[in-house]
Specification:
GO molecular function, one term: acyltransferase activity, transferring groups other than amino-acyl groups
Oligomer: single chain
InterPro entries: CAT-like_dom_sf (IPR023213), Plant_Fungal_Acyltransferase (IPR050317)
Largest sheet: 8 strands, mixed
Number of strands: 17
CATH topology of the largest domain: Chloramphenicol Acetyltransferase
Radius of gyration: 22 Å
Shape: globular
CATH class of the largest domain: Alpha Beta
Protein name: (wild Malaysian banana) hypothetical protein
Strand content: 15-25%
Pfam families: Transferase (PF02458)
Low-confidence stretches: 1-19, 146-151, 162-176
Keywords: Acyltransferase, Transferase
Order of helices and strands: EEEHEHEEEHEEEHHEHHEEHHHEEEEH
Number of domains: 2
CATH architecture of the largest domain: 2-Layer Sandwich
């Protein structure tokens, strides 16, 4: 299975809670294709083994107010800018396919991304606070093809500026090669609009996505792209023959002796836990108080704390092995480093393993130390070994009894500007897997020094987690 994710969720702005039993009604227009404005390179486009493991559809939304500048032209401006920016990001205008080697590849046909305009008969404030995944409401703000359950049934890029009818565009399309990007722009009754974006994660990671969206915004404002994309992914080709020089526990299967499958049969509950700077400081002090560690980062301390709290909330058996996975940005860790603007996945999954009994029976410093050791292992040789491991085995990371943390707290999606100012809030439509937790920036405007921890758990476990997350 391909389970890693790319998510944009930056908390910001003060938007009221939606009224009870509010149902968002959106009328979508007929989808159209937006090709690059100019002729672009054609042919097959290589995707590295870092791209292969994370081919999941990621759906995100960006909310913009229209104060001095109305939203009547929002869809037109965003669509025109998309055609221009796709000249530079031309693989997004192509079609995903499976190569003769059984790996993902992009056929750069230049056909274009899918764009949809939509209208909502309500105020944008009625959508409410989107800092928690809400697929029933937010799903209407991102265009998708009904029944598209696997990565080859979705385009690479889809944009929605908000409207939707059954799609005739793909009825006769060859489903062996499909689109990776959908976009939708939804306008609201008294102003404001929401940009919905659905992208296949194999096209880029969080940093790459941020650079693409910000480049798109710069183009819409008539500015040159500040970070042009580096599109040649062959710099991350695997070695021939493959050389696996490290054990790669991220792929290890774990026996579910705690029967978490039955537990996850309950209704899921979602919650965002806010860690302000003062609370983050307490977590770090707790991790260092027994003297086992000389220092630790905020990420290391918070990851260890959340891993332990979630393990206890799920009531895993003492002998249950549990794994923590997280992504490390490998751009500067490769030798030589990846070029600036690398258009692709430059992050590497790494992780650590413990029994639940040892994790909970020892101080927080034990879990934090495991995270530190995992971070240190991510060297150029380790990353190339992991890519070669996939080349030789085609294995996917296992998520049984696993927590996967995705960190977006350092990515500046909140600065995206298409000419209507920065988004008042942005976020994911839903979490892709029950094992995933998001670390998101928190704070007003650009002073985002806190972290929101966003996760879903079975309702009984979530009730227990409330107290366990305090420190």
């Amino acid at each position: 299975r391909a389970e890693t994710i790319l998510f944009v969720c930056v908390c910001g702005g003060q938007i009221p809670e939606p009224r009870e039993k509010f149902e968002l009604c959106v009328e979508q227009g007929e989808p159209t294709l937006v090709p690059p404005e100019e002729e672009t390179a054609k042919g097959l486009y290589f995707l590295s083994n870092l791209d292969q493991n994370i081919a999941v559809i990621v759906r995100t939304v960006y909310c913009f107010r229209s104060q001095e500048k109305g939203n009547e032209e929002a869809a037109q401006v965003i669509k025109a800018a998309l055609a221009k920016v796709l000249v530079h990001y031309y693989p997004l205008a192509g079609r995903l396919a499976i190569s003769d080697e059984g790996k993902l590849i992009v056929d750069c046909t230049g056909e274009g991304a899918v764009f949809v305009k939509a209208e909502a008969d309500c105020e944008m404030e009625d959508v409410g606070d989107i800092t928690k995944p809400n697929p029933d409401t937010l799903g209407k703000l991102v265009y998708t093809i009904l029944g598209a359950n696997n990565l080859l049934e979705m385009p690479p890029l889809v944009v929605q500026v908000r409207n939707s009818h059954p799609c005739s565009l793909f009825r006769s399309y060859n489903h062996r090669k499909l689109i990776a990007c959908f976009l939708q722009v939804t306008t609201f009754r008294s102003g404001g609009f929401i940009l919905g974006l659905a992208v296949n994660h194999c096209m880029f990671d969080g940093l790459g996505a941020m650079e693409f969206v910000n480049s798109w915004g710069e183009t819409a404002r008539g500015l040159p792209i500040s970070v042009p994309p580096f599109v040649d992914r062959t710099v991350l080709e695997s070695r021939n023959p493959p050389l696996v020089s490290f054990p790669h526990h991220e792929f290890a299967e774990i026996e579910d002796v705690s029967d978490t499958t039955a537990l996850y049969g309950e209704e899921m509950a979602y919650r965002s836990f806010c860690f302000e700077p003062e609370k983050l400081g307490r977590v770090k002090r707790r991790a260092l108080e027994d003297g086992a560690l000389a220092k630790c980062t905020t990420f290391e301390a918070l990851s260890g704390h959340v891993w332990r709290a979630r393990t206890e909330a799920l009531r895993l058996q003492p002998g249950q092995k549990t794994k923590l996975l997280f992504a490390v940005d490998g751009r500067s860790r490769f030798d030589p480093p990846l070029p600036q603007g690398y258009f692709g996945n430059g992050t590497m999954l790494t992780g650590c393993l413990s029994t639940a009994g040892e994790l909970l029976g020892r101080p927080l410093s034990f879990a934090v130390g495991l995270v530190q050791d995992a971070v240190k292992t991510v060297t150029d040789e380790y990353m190339r070994s992991a890519m070669d491991y996939f080349e030789a085995t085609r294995a996917r990371p296992s998520l049984t009894a696993t927590l996967l943390i995705t960190t977006w707290s350092r990515l500046s999606f909140h600065t995206t500007d298409f000419g209507w100012g920065e988004p008042v809030q942005s976020g994911p439509v839903t979490l892709p897997e029950k094992e995933v937790i998001l670390f998101l920036s928190h704070g007003k405007e650009r002073k985002r020094k806190g972290i929101n921890v966003l996760l879903g758990l079975p309702s009984s476990a979530m009730a227990r987690l409330q107290d366990l997350m305090e420190i």
